Structures are given as structure tokens and as C-alpha cells.
Amino acid sequence: MPHNQSLLIRHARILLPNGEYLLGDVLVRDRIILEVAPEVSATADREIDAKGLTLLPGVIDPQVHFREPGLEHKEDLFTASCACAKGGVTSFLEMPNTRPLTTTQAALDDKLQRASQKSLVNYGFFIGATAENLPDLVEANPTCGIKIFMGSMHGALLVDRETALEAIFANGKRLIAVHAEDQARINQRRQEFASITATAIHSQIQDNQAALNATKLALELSKKYQRRLHILHMSTAEEAELMRRDKPLWVTCEVTPQHLLLNTDAYEKIGTLAQMNPPLRSHHDNEVLWQALLDGVIDFIATDHAPHTLEEKAQPYPNSPSGMPGVETSLPLMLTQAMQGRCTVAQVANWMSTAVAKGYGIPKKGAIAVGYDADLVLVDLNNYHPVLRAELQTKCGWSPFEGWNLTGWPVYTIVGGQVAYERGKLNTEVRGQALTFDA
To answer: pTM above 0.90?
Structure first.
């Protein structure tokens, strides 16, 4: 649909910004929501009868690894954005560990150009911190923030020396997002457990203490310099309790569906497909993270979509790579939890859209309101369907949630007023736009 055309969604159960529902219509023109009402009298170029469906703001996934450039055998911006559209994800923020690394303005520009040509959904990119690229971290634009790998990384993107970390926190104002694991502790425990090759040892090598050490350090630096900080993929009870006790107004944190719904039991069932960084934790960690999310200690949800091929994953530990796909299952996973009474649909929409837009300063996203961008998803909360490998759009072709019976699958995904996904079919002509950031 050309951008100047109009779309009218009728008879939807619309989630309003106040958390209440309206049975009614939404009119869209020129990518923007023009009217939300019990009945819209206008006509439009296209109408969707959404009877029986729930209309939510499109998901903004604030942590993905889409592998382009340099690792396109695992995923690329086109295949990943197709997976996004199928999963109701209308915008993503992508990480810098591609080849070449996204550590310069030129590399950032290259990604933006690639995405403009390939991505069905909206996009933004992090600039990656090294010990040497401080000018780029301050000046690169547009970017959602600075990504620091404090651990679980090698090469230039590993920034584990406190002096280098301090220099980054002390200079500039933009958001810093950290992968918080203590690399020195990981190295020590890797030697300690070197004789054990069972995949489950991964959660002991990169243990709760390694995560807590790094989160504590990042928090200290953030407080020292009053620097906007975001803790990526929080995985432990200890980190959640630290944040409950001591979380300044300028600090946010996120959790992944896998750290809420999977634990170390998964190693027995799916082996290296359960391997990720930071690792899966205990059932107790699941419970504490859930409570922190419900209480607002944890602000939002990200997938950390990080695909590897099945061949790569089939290598014996520790040669097997860490990471799992997630963009096309995250929304139904969380909506299934809502339908089971663990949370509400409105909370899911806040965690996966509204709060992300607020946290990253993305204007006119994350709500169904007049004047906002028409990034929307119509979901079916009345029918269940299993996660099937054959139906996945991600290039890697597998999911750690294969076989899980979920509800809330997207029926329509709308990006800037354009229908990108409709009842099992993708419109690969749709293109998203580069996100802007107020921060």
C-alpha cells in the first residue's frame, strides 16, 4: 500500500493507552493514526474486518542480533525482518557484533542503508564500544545507544577493564546498554570446569555471581556520572533484588522470555539449543525475575534474537555457539502467559512496546492513539497453535520453544499503515523506516 493511502480497521478490540479496551475502529492515513473511535464514518482505500481480534501496538524489540553484514549464513536483515513481521514485531534495535563491527559512523551508515533496502519493519542500530572509539560513541548518529560487552565477548568489543569502562561512562550523554557479565570470573571458572563438556556446565561457568559483579560495577559507574544506563537481558535473582534496592530513575533493565520461561532443565531436553549468554538459570531465578517484572523493577522485554545454524549448534560444548532466535515467538509466548493469568495483556503491551519506546526515546511509537505511527498488530487470543519448525521465517529454522502450544499469534502486522503480514502471508514489498531517538 503506498504511503499516502488509507487503512481502516473495523470491529477490533482495541487496547487503549490507559490499559482499557474499546470495541471499535482505527483509521490510518500517511502512516499515522487519524482516528480511534467506536465507529469511524470515513471510508478508506482498504478495510480490515477485525472482528474477534485484539489490536495492540506493534512490538518494539530492543535487543536483536540480525547478523548482517558478515554472518548472513545465520540470518540477514530481510529474513530477520520477515520473522519480525510474522511475530508482530514492527521495530527492532540491532546489536553491533557483525562483521565488520558497528563501531564507526561508516559502519552504522552501511547498516542503515542495508535496512532501508531490505527490512519489512522499522529499524535502529547500536554503536559498539571498544577501548579506543570514544569519539565515535559520542558523535555517531542516528543510534539508539552505546552497547558495551563487559563479558561474553572477545576481540575489540570486549570492554572489561574498569579504566576503559569509566572513560565511556564519563564522556557524553547517550544511553549505555550493557551486557553485564564479569569476564575475569568467567575465565577463571572456565579453567576450573575445563574437564566437563556437558552443556549444562555453561550455567555454572557463567554463573549468577559473574552477572551480579558486572551489573554492580555498571550501576556504580552510572551513579557516579549520572549516566543513563540500561541493563540488557537480566537473568538472575540477585540482579533483580539489587535493582529492587537500588535503581536510580535514569536506570532501566530488561528480561527475555527465555529467562522467564526456560531454566537449566532445558539442557536435558534440547541440549545446546538452550545455550545462550547470559545462560539460563534456575527455577528460582525465573520466579524472582517474573516478580520483578510485575512490580516494575524490570522495565521491558527483549528477545536477544541471536540465531546460529543447526549445524553450528550441533557442535559439542564448548565449541557450540551461544544464542537462540526469538522475534517470531516472543509476543505469543507472553500473551499465552497473560491468558493463563500470570499477567495481563495490557502489561504485555507495555513491556513489549510502550515502555521500550519510552526507555529509548522513540517518538510516536508504542501506543494506539491519534497522531502516533500506525505500527500495529492484530492478534487472535481465542485459538492455540504450536511453534512448528516448518513455519518459522528465521533463516536458522529452529526455535527453543518448538512444540509449545501458544495463543496470541499475529493475524495482521501493520508497519507504518502498510500490511506487512496477513493470515500466514508476508508482503515483502513493505519497507520500514529508520527510527529516531529523542534521547
So the answer is: yes
